[in-house]
Amino acid sequence: MTDAGAMSGAGSPAAHLVHGMGTDMAAPSWPAITAEEAATVVAQFPAAGRLARVHWHSPRPFSAAALIETGQGMFLLKRHHRRLRTPDQLGAEHRFIAHLRPHIAVPEVMTLAASDSGALARGDWTYELHRKAAGVDLYRDRPSWTPFLSLAQARAAGVALARLHRASQGFDAPARPPQPLVASFTILPDPDPIAATERYIAARPALAAFLARRPWRREFTSLFSVLGDGLQPRLAAQPALWTHNDWHPSNLLWEEEDVRTVIDFGLADRTCALHDLAIALERSGVAWLALGQGADATIGQPEAACALLAGYAATTAFGAEDGATLVRLLPLVHLEFALSEVAYFAGVLGDMSAAALAWDGYLIGHAAWFLSEPGQAFLRRIADAEHGA
């Protein structure tokens, strides 16, 4: 049972804002979790106890999440629309987390009273509940893909990523089936990336409809021709591995300058270690929210990227060929998740303006920056770091 005091300190759900596509806050696509809703859901997880208070609503845009307090401590309650995650789809993430837990610090997934499932279906929503993990959420109010606050944190993130990759060994679940907002790995390793892209699009009708009048084949052919030369056989030779696929500072909890806990496995899938490392460098080594704002020449942060890479290479085997593959992969590693974002905006939200921004500004725009002189300089700095320059 809750009362008005349960919302004390949480702010009004009606006034809740989330991170938008740029630097401004925006109205949420998904309503904030209310105290009454949280109490009803938490009651289905017997180890969590009764709700005492909702403390904070997450500003992340693709789902609704709240930090809550119960008689058993602090928890993160997360709610997804069923078109984004079903209990079975969340189950894949939870099994990966369970595999990692004996080896690295990850959230504890709470389970339901009636089963060992960590996901509750209720109407149009799917819920999951995690015990609050150890560490300080230094970046919780910063937009995703915010660069690191220090080179020491960047290096620590590289060390932690290498440890996650070691911990992931032996988790042999198949790749996730097509679903929104997952960083899959089906296009770039394919000998015919255009045909692979056609299959990707065909499996997502809203994406196909959005692209029907766009010259996407011409744009992709150009990108693959200019940026993808020789990449496919290198990727095809990489060992498959379940990976995080969303490695950036706000998905890590911190203890001073070290990573304490890895969180948010919503994009996890079967890819390869170099794919995960390239995503980490791409998402945290470039201040993408400033792209197109008049300072494109300075958005790259190669020293932070090199620090992350140095931490990774110091903790795991990483040779010259891996470095060469990584540099080739970096400009294109975002493609599949960018396509997934377009499909999400066009199909789940019906927001064609946001879908166009995801296509033009994210998918095409990020790749184009890597073709610019600042982007090429960024890649050269990564390559030089690999050769000890």
UniProtKB/TrEMBL annotation:
The keyword Transferase applies. Signal peptide: none annotated. Keywords: Kinase, Transferase. Residues 67-287 form the Aminoglycoside phosphotransferase domain. One of its GO terms (molecular function) is homoserine kinase activity. InterPro entries: Aminoglycoside_PTrfase, Kinase-like_dom_sf, Pseudomonas-type_ThrB. It comes from the Bacteria. GO terms for biological process: threonine biosynthetic process. Belongs to the pseudomonas-type ThrB family. This is Ser/Thr protein kinase RdoA (MazF antagonist).
